[in-house]
Amino acid sequence: MTADAGREIYTVSRLNREARALLEEGFPLLWVEGEVSNLARPRSGHLYFTLKDASAQVRCAFFRNRHRPGMPALADGMQVLVRARVSLYEARGDYQLLVESVEEAGDGALRRAFEALKARLAAEGLFDADRKRPLPRLPRAVAVVTSPTGAAIRDILHVLARRFPAVPVYVYPTAVQGEGAAAQIVAAIRRAGRERRADVLILARGGGSLEDLWPFNEEAVARAIRACPIPVVSGVGHEVDVTIADLAADLRAPTPSAAAELVVPDRGEWRARLARDRERLAQAARRLLRRRREGLEGLAARLARQHPRRILRQRNQRLDEASLRLERAARALVGARRRRLELLAARLARQHPRRRLAARRARLAELRVRLGTAARGGIERRRRHLAALRAALGAGGRRPLERWRPRLARLAGRLDGTSPLRTLARGYAIVITPDGRILRDAAAVRAGDAVRARLARGALDCRVEAVHRGETP
């Protein structure tokens, strides 16, 4: 590989090498049917030929170390079924098959019969996923239907003993190939289902050709698997071998050992899980106990707060406080009412008619004295003025008197116009209340009150019959 301007450049060798790795890793061991042509037998003992059908062909390499006694002698035009891996011949860049084994074309007929039965049972719904039953997490026991002398039972027992030795195993022996093997397999499955000593059943045998595995491709075996009352795990052949039993089973394992791995848990994992579950359970129990203890303490505190004795003491204390507040409120109310009564009594005393009448009488007497004084002062001033006028008249004759007469006439007219007597002479009256106030508003008296009406000549003592507020004459 060289670098050119940041590009990765492959050599042809590297390209073919990585292409071969991709082909070999990308395809499993598989069966291919076709016609042999261009068969070559070099001195090395390896066989090279082309396998073809009506529309395509592929090169095949069958190395000498893969030859088995009893294998068919290959010849051009022979119809064969090869078991091979996909690869690439790096030197020429040829895509090819590396053959592991070869079977005659008769196996092709078996393959077609297999495909026909598979299609018919699939159409019937025998292989549907919704008919598959789950396996128990930890079975009480495991039933195994297989040959008691084959390698499969040894592998299964070894794996079960290693993973979970506490689970008992019941082996139902049967032939796993040859004539009558299918009937024995069906009988063993039915017996295991009838006895119900196990929670799961393993149907197993080692690898082999399609003909060797044919008892597991019988319709009776598939129907026995579906009719079995306990879940069935199929571990027939190798990973590339797929049988009707594999399709009908509740779970397919690639090998018998893998089937044993699937039916029981690993004891180490279970111990770790049990330890984790035990710790979580202990933590949950501690948390529950703590919550319950806290809840109990809370309830005890609430009970103490809500105890009748405590409530009664609180209610008694509140009653005492309410009694004291009521007593203080009553005293305050009585005091307020007493002060209000005293205030009203004082106001009543101030507003009593006798007191007001006495006040009005005193006021009237005062006003009479002031009026007398004012009248006397006015008369005295008028006398002095008249005396001055007379003196002036005596001294100056009639001409000064004539000079003062218009002014005196104006003053007399103004005095006569403002005199209340002149108003009374026009038919009006001055109404005086018993306390001496001049009545100006009808709202100041009530019906039944006594009043005095002063006229131009004389006065009338009257009693109010009705009060008309807001009316004008």
From TrEMBL:
OB-fold nucleic acid binding domain ranges (all copies): 10-103
EC number: 3.1.11.6
GO molecular function, one term: exodeoxyribonuclease VII activity
Coiled coil: 271-339
Keyword terms: Coiled coil, Cytoplasm, Exonuclease, Hydrolase, Nuclease
Annotated PANTHER family: EXODEOXYRIBONUCLEASE 7 LARGE SUBUNIT
Family membership noted in the UniProt record: Belongs to the XseA family.
Function comment: Bidirectionally degrades single-stranded DNA into large acid-insoluble oligonucleotides, which are then degraded further into small acid-soluble oligonucleotides.
Protein name, per record: Exodeoxyribonuclease 7 large subunit
